[in-house]
């Protein structure tokens, strides 16, 4: 973790205040004055501010039911960041483990533990994400099995050099399916359906790994349970 982030995490200081302390030479890492905010440190280092040792606060883990017209970013752009919904201290020091588009709703995982979020989003971990997808064109029942096979075999997305990893598609209604994928390419679900000549008109993430949104109301958040956290440790 970056040194300035470690200081924020272990004190009430903001990132800018931490940077000021560093500039003043008030921070020591393993007995040496450290001035570089980007220096990488971990729990086993002895970090002192004004000659007092810091102990890192434990990491925080949340789920949020994202509503439309919000963005998975730490800065507001056209739409507000989802972090405004997490009314905890220093919410903007958290980050989002697996982004959703502004118009996509559903499950978002939020943490300040970079190693944990890496386990959620790394393509190498093959973590399953389940999406409920509403489509412009009805699925013709006779063609559904062919669609299942295409998604299983992998879809060639425009501009990508390899096929998508095998995906599972389940029929819910004539223009509604559940899709399970194990990667998170840019606009992946929308591009997969575009590649088979359809269009996503609504998208909602229900599950990431074993963590389910269940009946958490739209716009609400909660702390993840120990079991939910340890599934990605
Ligand atoms: N795939 C998309 O196309 N959009 C999302 O928000 C998530 C997955």
Question: What brief labels describe this structure?
Answer:
single chain, Alpha-Beta Plaits, elongated, 6 helices, Structural Genomics Hypothetical 15.5 Kd Protein In mrcA-pckA Intergenic Region, Chain A, alpha+beta, nine-stranded mixed sheet, 233 residues, four-stranded antiparallel sheet, 22% helix, binds uracil, 3 domains
Helix percent reads 10-25%
Secondary-structure-derived class: alpha+beta
What are the segments in which pLDDT stays under 50 over at least 5 consecutive residues? Answer: none
The CATH topology of the largest domain: Alpha-Beta Plaits
CATH architecture of the largest domain: 2-Layer Sandwich
Can you count the helices?
Answer: 6
Strand content: 15-25%
Order of helices and strands: HHEEEEEEEHEHEEHEEEH
Rg from C-alpha positions? 21 Å
Q: Categorize the overall geometry.
A: elongated
CATH superfamily of the largest domain: Alpha-L RNA-binding motif
Description:
By secondary structure, this protein is an alpha+beta fold. Helix 1 packs across helix 2. The protein has 3 domains: 3-53, RNA-binding S4 domain (Structural Genomics Hypothetical 15.5 Kd Protein In mrcA-pckA Intergenic Region, Chain A, Roll), CATH 3.10.290; 61-123 and 216-230, Pseudouridine synthase I, catalytic domain, N-terminal subdomain (Alpha-Beta Plaits); 128-208, Alpha-L RNA-binding motif (Alpha-Beta Plaits), CATH 3.30.70. It has helices at 3-10, 15-23, 114-121, 141-153, 188-195, 226-230, and strands spanning 27-29, 32-33, 47-49, 52-53, 61-66, 95-96, 105-111, 129-135, 168-173, 176-181, 200-208, 211-212, 221-223. The strands form 2 sheets. Strands 5, 6, 7, 8, 9, 10, 11, 12 and 13 form a 9-stranded mixed beta sheet that branches. The model has no long low-confidence stretch (mean pLDDT 93). The chain binds uracil. The site of uracil has 8 residues, from helix 5.
């Amino acid at each position: 973790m970056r040194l300035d982030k470690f200081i924020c995490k272990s004190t009430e200081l903001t990132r800018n205040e931490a940077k000021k302390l560093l500039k003043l030479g008030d921070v020591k890492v393993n007995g040496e004055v450290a001035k570089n905010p980007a220096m990488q440190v971990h729990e086993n280092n002895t970090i002192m501010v004004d000659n007092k040792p810091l102990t890192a606060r434990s990491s925080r883990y949340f789920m949020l039911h994202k509503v439309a017209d919000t963005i998975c970013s730490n800065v507001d752009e056209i739409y507000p960041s989802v972090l405004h919904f997490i009314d905890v201290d220093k919410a903007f020091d958290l980050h989002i483990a697996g982004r959703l588009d502004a118009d996509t709703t559903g499950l978002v995982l939020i943490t300040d533990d970079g190693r944990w979020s890496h386990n959620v989003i790394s393509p190498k971990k093959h973590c399953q994400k389940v999406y409920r997808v509403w489509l412009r064109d009805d699925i013709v029942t006779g063609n559904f099995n062919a669609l299942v096979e295409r998604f299983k075999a992998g879809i060639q997305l425009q501009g990508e050099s390899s096929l998508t990893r095998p995906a599972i598609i389940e029929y819910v209604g004539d223009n509604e399916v559940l899709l399970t994928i194990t990667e998170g390419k840019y606009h992946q679900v929308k591009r997969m359906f575009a590649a088979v000549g359809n269009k996503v008109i609504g998208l909602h993430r229900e599950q990431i790994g074993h963590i389910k949104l269940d009946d958490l109301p739209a716009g609400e958040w909660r702390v993840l349970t120990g079991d939910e956290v340890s599934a990605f440790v």
